[in-house]
Amino acid sequence: MLISEIAEALASDDFLFVDHAQTIELLSKLAQVPIGQDQAFLDSWNHLEQDQYMADGGKYRKRRHAVYAIQNAGEQAHQMPYQPHYQTLDYNPLNGGVARYFAPILDDLHHSDTLAALLAFGNAVFSQLSGNPLWHIELHQFRIEARDGRLGKPTPEGMHRDGVDFVIVVMIKRVNIDSGATTIFDLDNRQLGEFMLRETFDMALVNDRRVYHGVTPITQLQAQKEAFRDVLVITFRAPDNV
Length: 242
Hints:
- With 242 residues, this protein is of the alpha+beta class.
- It has one domain: q2cbj1_9rhob like domain (Jelly Rolls), CATH 2.60.120.620.
- 21% of the residues lie in helices and 32% in strands.
- The protein contains five helices and 13 strands.
- It has helices at 3-13, 20-31, 39-43, 107-110, 113-130, and strands at 15-18, 49-50, 61-70, 78-79, 135-145, 166-175, 177-179, 181-186, 191-196, 203-207, 211-215, 218-220, 228-237.
- The strands form three sheets. Strands 1, 2, 3, 4, 5, 6, 10 and 13 form an eight-stranded antiparallel sheet that branches.
- Strand 3 and strand 4 (78-79) form a beta hairpin.
- Helix 1 (3-13) crosses helix 5 and helix 2 packs across helix 5 (113-130).
- The mean pLDDT is 93.
């Protein structure tokens, strides 16, 4: 699948599922090195910190966060100084309305060829689709846990938009869980699609201006064993002055 084909499909349907084999092939071409066995990248999800901003009191979410930017056409994304994550209550009625200072992403991810390829991929697709070459980019590492018979909620705010232009969700790992299906609805609340990110590097792309997205709660399959869902969420927003 080519970048142009992905942009065309996203323009047509406003969301797209890309399976792990296609993702790895695309990223490897962009990076010019094999992508898919970057253990330092994958292991970084074992070092996330508790989300302290859960208005529902939940202890099921761990995360880290960073901001990147593309400030000049044709350049690569570069890391920005640390800054908090903010969403209005319009977009996140559960946890929005406050600046959230999450633990910063660690160097093992920042120095990864895999991350560089993902950022280059998003820039290529979304710039072609929108005609905009400049981006404010946020990275969110998530681990959602299901423990002691309690649900883990990947999107506790429910069906939502993130208040950006485009979203990439990359599956990292599923362990001992059921469900966690991605659901897509149009702005009139009609369901457009549902699919599962199951394999490492399965990927979803979403036009955040045109559709809502959410993920169904996860449940623990085998009691007394750890159960979690790890993903990387990358959001792209055109800077306010573009």
